[in-house]
Amino acid sequence: MTELGGKLGLDRLTIKKYMSLLEQLFLVEQLTAWHSNEYKRLVEIPKLQSIDTGRLCAVRGLNRERLPKQPGDFGLVLESFAYNELRKPALWIEESLNFYHYRDKDKVEVDVIIENATGDCFAIEVKAAATLGAKDFSGLKRF
Asked: Which of 65, 80, 87, 131 has the greatest number of C-beta atoms within 10 Å?
């Protein structure tokens, strides 16, 4: 919030109010950081997910021609899309599922962690690449 506020010239409290409004309008959702008392090296900052990837593309000026030319933006859109698709069935199944993301102090990440009521965790990494290497699995291995 502080970093975003600095970029926009707004204080942290104002940014927090705006983020709350965006959540109430179902435009963004905060994905809480997964953590455990056993692991002290985890970063507990929430991650924002766009609820509507079409709107995300419109706001960022991305279209069919521009999206393939900007792989970083494509990865962001794909991750948001995958997250939203995972959330849909979670709303209607009987088992309670909690969604998180994982990041440690070394900036090793996993895009989505799904934890069920018994504490079992399922890690999901979204990649917008044609090929995968060992480095692409570092977050899953660390988690």
From this structure: 80
**CA atoms of 4 and 23, how far apart (whole Å):** 16
The alpha helices in the chain, defined as continuous H runs, are: 2-8, 12-24, 53-60, 71-90, 138-142
**Residues contacting residue 78 through CB under 8 Å, at least 6 positions apart:** 126, 128
CA angle (128, 54, 86) in 5-degree steps: 60
Assign residue 110 a region: left if phi > 0, alpha if psi is -120 to 50, beta otherwise? beta
Look at the block and give the residue holding tokens 């709107």.
55
Q: How far is CA 138 from the centre of its chain?
A: 17
pLDDT tens-digit map of 54-113: 999 998 899 999 988 888 899 899 999 999 999 999 888 888 999 999 998 888 899 999
Closest residue by Cα to residue 80 from 39, 101, 116, 52: 52
